[in-house]
Amino acid sequence: MIFKKLVSVIVPAYNHDEYIEACLKSILEQSYSKLELIIVNDGSVDETHEKILAFEKKHRRRFKRFIYVKREHKGAGDTLNELITLAKGEFLFQIASDDIAKKNAVAVLADFLKRNIDYALVVGDNEIIDDQGNRVYWDKDRNNLPEENLSVYKTFGEFLQAHRPDVDFDSDDFGELGTLLKGNYIPNGKMFRRSALLKVGGYEKDMLEDWYINIKLAKRYRLKYIDQILFSYRWHGSNTIKNLEYIKKIESNMKDFLEEYKREYNKLPEK
Predict the structure, then answer these.
(1) N or C: which end of the chain has fewer CB within 10 A?
(2) Residue 162 region, left (φ>0) first, then alpha (ψ -120 to 50), else beta?
């Protein structure tokens, strides 16, 4: 298949000098050719900056555009909004600087959005990797296990589906607003239609940014899950979701937003 749409790969980078090279290498090796790479370094104090500069020096010509911004720390919401503003592609593929994309991820996701203009977001399943990049699996408490036969969850998608039996991931109900208001269940490695992100106003500071943007998109657009492993989600000691104090704070910030959307949703006519 030949794709003519420019895809912007957007990378919010923060203190991931151990992982950033593997992340960028996975973008370099994408089978989809028409890519631009946009990286914003959100005030990293480790060697993330040096690793990005070394990558840019070697591989800049592979991309239609290569934009790298290094600045003081502002947080995830501001960083993602800056990435959206800098990007020129019709589709945006978002990847954290500690994760890895499968070689065909951009091609599969871009093909779907190209053929389905009423969708604003598409995502595949995630395998789980450890801090060394090894494929691992989860026990019931999401501890990493090397043995697949001893695991409870083989992929992140399997974990999410087990905890949201009310949602059929293979149906048109995936990403429906009412189900998302009960909790986020969309995996990592999302591709967005850039125009949709701009129409809903992008991200908000000090929110659970993934859940927040998924809800805003679900109010206006359709979202899609592809049952195929397209992404490697790195589960290690410093994942943001494991910072319980931070998560508690931003969950508190989400309360008013959720209540507003629930009130609006309850006023909608039944389908």
Answers:
(1) C
(2) alpha
